[in-house]
Structure formats: structure tokens, C-alpha cells
Design a protein that fits this description.
Structural class: mainly alpha
Radius of gyration: 31 Å
Largest sheet: 2 strands, antiparallel
Shape: elongated
Strand order of the largest sheet: 1-2
Order of helices and strands: HEEHHHHHHHHHHHH
Helix content: over 70%
Strand content: under 5%
């Protein structure tokens, strides 16, 4: 027992002597304070680079500009990052909207799948609709880097995705046998298509979309664009039936005309 206490005490002394902890005051030692200062400086650089990348693009931004924006020398910048691509990777990991999307989805309410997706869509639009640089961030990663950093981001998000799957599994309703990753991809496509087209929509066209366009997007996601047969009015059914019958008659007439031509051609040869 004495040996264990002695060993533990020796380890504590090493930590203190390394400067990570001051047991007398309970405050961080010099080494830990240095680590915190370095992390704070990295965040300062990342934020400065993010502002420049979003404002003028990745290629148009130089290391010198990032250093000036962060308030440090260019030589000092290389103490924290080996190059501009490493800075972009830090920006992408820190600023990616998935950091906000997953908590919004986990907080979505609704006992049924339909209620859950409707509330989740509204939360996403309200929460991320105010981020003007959202598309810039995504396009730089996809166009400039061919999405090379996305697998790393995905791995970091796996625990939260697993929790979201548990939340999703508790909802009422019957889903088609669609793999959950594919379902999540389709829902993300719904949100981004709404987000992008909403930004591109001319003012003259917006009134035609109605005040419930987001709700219609969700409804299309859940039920598609075709009206279920049992909900179609009788007149629409009759029209569809008449159209089908007319199409059949046209095919019959075309077939008869073709046969007459063939008979006429055979008679001319005789």
C-alpha cells in the first residue's frame, strides 16, 4: 500500500514539475496555461481565416492576409499551421453546419414520423437560414477539395448520429424499408434544395409559392407528388379512364392502318 501511495505521489510530482498543475492554488500551471494560450491563438487564426475565405474565396486568400487579420506575424502563423490547407481543414471542421444540424434534429418534436420531419424542417430553416456563408463553406470543400475532408468530419459525428438514430426509432408510423443513411441523405437534400431555391427565387415568383411552401416541401418528401388513388375525385378517375380508353383506340386504329398498308403492298407485288 505504501508503495502505491509513493508511486502516485511521484506521478503527481512529475505533473506539477512539468508545470501542468499547481496543487497549492488549484490553478493551471505554466505549461497548461501555454497550451490554453496556444489553443486560443489557433481559434483566433481559424476565425480570421473563416472570415476571409467566406468573403473572398479560398484561392484569393493568402497566408499573409490571414496573419494580418489574426493580428500576428506570418512567421508566427506557421507556428500553428503548416499551410493554408491545414487552416482550411480546421475551419471546415469547426464551422461545418452539421455541428448545428444534429442538435436541431435531436431536439425536433413529434410523436409520429410526419410530425418529427415537419418540426425538424422548420428548426433547420429557422436555425440555419440566418447563416449567409453556409453555401460558401460547402462549395469550397466540394469544388476546391473534392470533399476530401468530409470522411473525417463524418467519423467525428458518428456518436451523435447514433443518438439521432435512437431518437428516430421511437417515432410512430410505418416507413418503407429504406436504409437510415439514405433517408437522412434524402432529408438533407430536401432542406438544401429548399434553402438554395429560396435564395434564388425572384421576388415576382415568391407569392406563387404560398405561405406554406416549406410544409409542402415536407409533404412531398413524405408522400411524393402523386395523389393517392383513393383520394382522387371521381371525375378525375373518369377522365383518366377515358384517356386510357382513347389511347387504346388510337393504338388499334394505328395497327389497323399499318395492316392495310401491308396488304396493299403485298397486292401490288402480286
Amino acid at each position: 500500500m505504501q508503495s502505491k501511495q509513493s508511486t502516485h505521489g511521484t506521478q503527481s510530482q512529475r505533473i506539477v514539475s512539468a508545470g501542468f498543475m499547481d496543487t497549492a492554488s488549484g490553478q493551471a500551471g505554466p505549461a497548461e496555461a501555454t497550451l490554453r494560450k496556444g489553443e486560443a491563438r489557433r481559434r483566433l487564426i481559424t476565425e480570421a481565416a473563416y472570415q476571409l475565405f467566406m468573403r473572398q474565396g479560398y484561392h484569393a486568400t493568402s497566408m499573409r492576409q490571414i496573419a494580418e487579420q489574426a493580428g500576428i506575424t506570418q512567421a508566427g502563423l506557421y507556428n500553428y499551421f503548416p499551410g493554408k490547407e491545414a487552416i482550411w481543414q480546421a475551419v471546415f471542421m469547426d464551422k461545418h453546419p452539421y455541428h448545428e444540424i444534429l442538435p436541431l434534429l435531436q431536439g425536433a418534436r413529434g410523436e409520429s414520423y410526419a410530425e418529427f420531419f415537419g418540426d425538424a424542417a422548420r428548426r433547420l430553416v429557422d436555425g440555419l437560414g440566418q447563416r449567409p456563408h453556409l453555401l460558401n463553406l460547402m462549395f469550397i470543400e466540394l469544388v476546391e477539395f473534392k470533399g476530401q475532408d468530409i470522411p473525417v468530419l463524418y467519423q467525428s459525428l458518428l456518436p451523435e448520429l447514433a443518438h439521432l438514430a435512437q431518437v428516430f426509432a421511437q417515432k410512430r408510423g410505418h416507413l418503407r424499408p429504406i436504409p437510415l443513411p439514405l433517408l437522412a441523405r434524402a432529408f438533407a437534400g430536401l432542406f438544401f434544395s429548399y434553402y438554395v431555391t429560396n435564395m434564388m427565387m425572384p421576388d415576382q415568383v415568391r407569392p406563387l409559392m404560398g405561405e406554406t411552401s416549406l410544409g409542402m416541401f415536407v409533404d412531398i418528401f413524405l408522400h411524393g407528388i402523386l395523389e393517392p388513388v383513393e383520394r382522387q375525385p371521381e371525375e378525375a378517375l373518369r377522365q383518366a379512364q377515358r384517356a386510357g380508353e382513347e389511347g387504346l383506340r388510337q393504338e388499334q386504329r394505328a395497327g389497323e392502318a399499318l395492316r392495310q398498308e401491308q396488304r396493299a403492298e403485298e397486292g401490288s407485288h402480286d
